[in-house]
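Technical note accompanying the year-one report. For the benefit of new consortium partners, we illustrate the data format agreed upon in the data management plan: each record pairs a sequence with a structure-token string. No post-processing was applied to the example shown here.
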Amino acid sequence: MANYTKPLPVPNLDSQPFWEGCKRHELLIPRCRRCGNYHFYPRFFCPKCVSNNLEWVKVGGRGKVYTFTIIERAGMAAFEEEVPYILALVQLEEGVLMMSNIVGCQLDKIEIGMDVQVVFDDVTDEITLPKFKPLT
């Protein structure tokens, strides 16, 4: 973990519960108590009804690949050892879209609509990243 050289997220007041959940290997998503809408990315109000009466809900972490791209050229030096890799938008069963990597999948096997499950990558002592792997 000490050798992690890629950029790391910086948790803020809106996203702190998300990152704390990831550290415990739990996927937490904000849900509006007023209208029931799940949303992602974390923010202090519901994008559907603008209520700030939110709760963090543990979700199962299952979803489908909504779209993807295969990154074949590193955008920065820290990612050079990773290419090629899969970057995807995953639509969780709760309806939200999350951008993440697909891991444990051969590049020629990835497809839109593929069932995936969240996995957690403890990249530092402080930060755990959610990634997704195919369901088999």
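Partners are asked to follow this layout when depositing records. The chain has a mean pLDDT of 96.
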